[in-house]
Predict the 3D structure of the following.
Amino acid sequence: MKRLSLIIAALLLGALSAGAQRYDRGYENFPTREFIPKGTWMVGGSVGYTQHLNRDHNFLIIEDINSDGFHVSAKPVFLYMFKNNMGLGARFSYSRGLLDIESASLSVMGVDLGLKDYCNVSQKYSGAIVYRVYIPIGNANRIAMFAEGQIGGSIGQSKASEAHTGEIVGTFENNYNLHIGVNPGMVAFLADNLAIEASLGIVGVSYNWKDQVRNQIDNGAGTVFSAGFMLNPLDLSIGVTYYIPHKTR
């Protein structure tokens, strides 16, 4: 019994000693180690353009697709480093798209469905205030991870028309969004001041609402609230950035 008491006392003393000991895993050195110096300006962004043209194309269970369309976007960003490896700035985005379907058919279990003369034109403006912290990797001062917090919103419009029982049916819609999110990413310098970066949205809170008018007569509305921790491939961003240093890197 005495031996057991000594063993328990030794274990307790060891646990207290381990709890009182301070471990230095190096995380505290990341923000203070100079990767992007204080006073640096970062400007950059990305542009994109896609176009498609289908003639009698089949996709899974959708047949005889005849369509064309495009999507164009521009996403500028700028940051000012108010402290080593910490920046504050803004992101902006504009996108516009067109989808024009001449015809398409769908057949499921003997039920035939068709779409003809459908056209959708949309555009969206968005902006956000961003705060970014860099965490350098290795000693070469060329690659780093970063975490970026965003608070922003967007405004969009879309107009759709389709042939329905011999009549043209048109729907106009206004879309609004407010969001708060955190995007992790990586940046790699290709030259002294030129870098390429990629980020992906994983967590956020979003509120969306829309107003809809059909044939200038019928009105509709809808709201969607979402919050969670999840990978969002649609929020993948890849771009080129240029750093204007306050002093030589």
Remarks:
- The chain has one helix and eight strands.
- The beta strands are 41-59, 62-83, 86-108, 111-137, 143-164, 167-189, 194-214, 218-244.
